[in-house]
Amino acid sequence: KGYRMVQMLNPINHSLTEEQARQYLTEPYYLDGDVYANPGQYGRGGWSIYTGAAGWYYRCILETLLGFRFSGNSIRITPRTPKGWENWSVEMVYRNTALKIHFRRTGQNAVYVNGQKCDEIICDGGEKSVEVFCE
After folding, report:
1. SS3 state at 22
2. Are 120 and 74 in contact (CB under 8 A)?
3. Rounded distance, CA 18 to CA 24, Å?
4. φ, ψ for residue 24, nearest 5 deg
5. Alpha-carbon span 29 to 39, nearest angstrom
6. Residue 119 phi, psi dihedral angles, 5° rounding
7. Is 94 helix (H, G, I), strand (E, B) or coil?
8. Is the dihedral of CA 109, 113, 116, 122 positive or negative?
9. Which of 43, 44, 74, 86 has the fewest CB neighbours in a 10 Å radius?
């Protein structure tokens, strides 16, 4: 359900055809704060540059869908991705630590950092390879 919402909000999905683009009328690379439902402007985007919607969209994907929970210098990952997602990867820097995170659906729940099983990723500098296994 969450992934369907993310897809609904994705601005490019409002401009897949010329007709949709003419209706939406805003740039397909901005996440609008509004999509109008009133007659005469139905489906038109608004507040494309002036909104924090893109930041909230990013947080929704990272924290809810991908399941990242940040606390101080640690991260816990509990993915809630669609069943069809067998693998995905994220590369990011958090607290001066370069992370390469690889997710695999295996039927078990476990996180490994540099080959060692752990409950959380401690970001204390350097580079870390993280494997996340999920049901």
Report:
1. helix
2. yes
3. 10
4. -70, -45
5. 25
6. -90, -30
7. strand
8. negative
9. 86
